[in-house]
Design goal:
The structure is a single chain. The strands form 2 sheets. The chain has a 6-stranded mixed β-sheet. The chain has a two-stranded antiparallel sheet with strand order 1-2. The chain has 253 residues and is of the alpha+beta class. Helix 2 packs across helix 4. It starts with a helix and ends with a helix. It is built from 11 helices and 8 strands. The chain has a single domain, classed as 3-Layer(aba) Sandwich (Glutaredoxin), CATH 3.40.30.10.
């Protein structure tokens, strides 16, 4: 418990420093979460997020990018459904995200790789993705498509490839053609089975369930993170740096 309190104290100090920065220089997604009696409002930053999130590029089913880089990142790591890493790892980093979220895209490209290439590949932790689909009508179908890819052992390839080709939020790009292109690029072998499963009540119901789970935990923005360990569930919110998560994983191991 003392380690958690220390991390929360340091996190609050960092937040106080960050609030002094001109708000116009940051893309903000406010996140509130409870950890005991503690209330944190975390601002997910970096001008790059604004550039990537508001760009008109991406969303092109005929011109997917990043297949090789995605394979390099997650290829060879054990995965089951949307859990990446050694299934015996005692610590699980849980991400609640929306595939349409531009901030999630930035975390996928700039934040998570350090953790995946380090503690996940080393077997100290596994990382799981849970849909928190609330940004638009295409968020839930995209999330179900990722779950269907996960059923064929290509869930994280789907997630990462989707983010690297993400279009403008709620522009309508995440249609059947785009989702199918991502599934093929991710290496899903049985596309017919994937197509059937992604529309099933089982997987669409799972998206609804994990979205409700995120809301029950008090999360109001994406991406939101939690850490599951033998000590219980610790809410991390939206960490400002991967080192913050790495520290939490080390202390929970």
């Amino acid at each position: 418990m003392s380690n958690k309190r220390e991390r929360e104290k340091r996190r609050e100090q960092r937040l106080q420093e960050e609030t002094k920065v001109d708000a116009g220089e940051r893309r903000t997604r406010l996140l509130q979460f409870g950890a005991g009696a503690v209330f944190l409002a975390i601002v997910a930053v970096v001008i790059l997020i604004v550039v990537n999130g508001n760009s008109d590029s991406g969303g092109d089913a005929q011109n997917l990018e990043g297949v090789a880089s995605v394979d390099s990142l997650v290829g060879g790591i054990p995965q089951k459904e949307l859990v990446l890493g050694d299934p015996k790892a005692k610590v699980e980093l849980i991400e609640f995200g929306d595939l349409q979220c531009p901030v999630c895209k930035s975390y996928s490209e700039e934040f998570l790789p350090q953790i995946i290439e380090g503690q996940v590949k080393d077997g100290k932790a596994k990382v799981s993705f849970r849909n928190f689909a609330f940004l638009g009508e295409q968020s839930a179908p995209a999330g179900a498509a990722a779950l269907a890819a996960g059923n064929q052992g290509r869930g994280w390839q789907f997630l990462e490839l989707f983010y690297r080709n993400q279009g403008k939020e709620n522009s309508g790009y995440a249609d059947d053609e785009f989702l199918t292109a991502v599934a093929k690029g991710a290496g899903v072998k049985d596309i017919a089975k994937w197509d059937e499963e992604r529309k099933s009540s089982k997987l669409t119901g799972e998206v609804t369930a994990t979205t409700a789970e995120a809301q029950k935990l008090g999360f109001t923005g994406t991406p939101s993170f939690a850490l599951q360990s033998p000590d219980g569930l610790e809410l991390l919110g939206t960490p400002s740096a991967p080192e913050e998560v790495e520290e939490a994983i080390e202390e929970a191991s």
